[in-house]
Amino acid sequence: MNHLLSIKELSQAQLLDLLALAKKIKNNPADYRHALDGKSVVMLFEKPSLRTRVSFDIGINKLGGHCLYLDQQNGALGKREPVSDFASNLSCWADAIVARTYLHTTIEELAEHGKVPVINALSDLYHPCQALADFLTLSEKFDDVTKVKLAYLGDGNNVAHSLMYGAAILGATMTVVCPEGHFPADEVVTEVQQIAEQNGGQLILTSDLNAINEQDAVYTDTWISMGDDTSLAEIEAKFKPYQVTQALMDKLGAKYFMHCLPAYREVEATAEVVDGEGSLILDQAENRMHAQNAVLVTLLS
Q1: Has 221 been annotated as catalytic?
Q2: pTM of the entire structure?
């Protein structure tokens, strides 16, 4: 690994190794207290954040490293000065760059022109750190995460893309249920199907909730992505049938509910599900730090 731009760049062995390392760091934090001694990580954020910023900042500190946060008050990436200059300048001082951007091309430019590892903390196409945390969470609940059946309901967005790649690499079965016109990107679907076939996994795409069989976990996300100005009324008209309710969870036999947060109760999922006994949302949030720490240790050791 030179960077983490997307989960799709990982082999099955690399993905399983990252999950195993994340568990070690989580369960034995003292053993990694000095893993990043003398290392500095710059975080470039174009978008607001709670979990991503806090989990990286505190996680880097727990590993003995130093974190510097830069928001766009310092000049928008590519506007105040070229992304290539951002990357080359930061490489003079920092040991790694964590970037949360609007466009994935910005992440790619940082990796191309920088001389240090770049970690994608979210772009319009992918959210690899979230997916790593999600599969870490599932691996804590299931002895063999490669056998998990995961259903994703809602918008085929960056989170869905990363979950799809992760499931395909692991050889798991993932069902993606979206309203017409809101499926994942065609090129992502094609790649995921090829990867799934190689690893004995399966990707199922449908708009019909009645076509879904039993699932181990059900995942959803907000119906409106950050920065989208589509009216809630227009979105609800399309997505309301895909709301995750307790009745749906029972019908699918799903023990666990997952959401990357922030969650809007009684919108994409009911409060009964979001706050229910089977909800893993806080486990996922906590595991962001451990999964990201595993990436940092792997890239900077």
Answers
A1: yes
A2: 0.96
Confidence of residue 78 (pLDDT cuts 50, 70, 90): confident
The arithmetic mean of pLDDT across residues 84-89, rounded, is: 96
The yes-or-no answer on residue 178 being catalytic is no
Q: What is the pLDDT of residue 197?
A: 97
d(CA 176, CA 162): 12
Residue numbers belonging to the annotated binding site: 100, 127-130, 158, 221, 225-226, 260-261, 288
Q: Which among 3, 51, 53, 100 is annotated as catalytic?
A: 100
Which band of pLDDT confidence, cut at 50, 70 and 90, is reported for residue 11? very high
Compute the radius of gyration of the chain from its Cα atoms. 19
Report the pLDDT value the prediction gives residue 222, as an integer from 0 to 100: 94
Whether 297 shows a pLDDT value over 80: the answer reads yes
Catalytic annotation on 127?
yes
> pLDDT tens across 61-76, in order?
999 999 999 987 755 6
The whole-angstrom separation of Cα 18 and Cα 282 is 20
Q: Which of 3, 161, 288, 290 is catalytic?
A: 288
Residue 113 is among the residues annotated as catalytic for this protein: no
Active site residue 246: no
Q: How far is the C-alpha of 226 from the C-alpha of 261, rounded, in Å? A: 12
* Given the residues 3, 51, 130, 178, the one annotated as active site: 130
80 is catalytic: no
- Which amino acids are annotated as binding site for L-ornithine, given as ranges? 158, 221, 225-226
Of 134, 161, 260, 292, the active-site residue reads 260
Q: Which of 113, 221, 290, 292 is an active site residue?
A: 221
Both tokens of 82, joined, read 């070229």
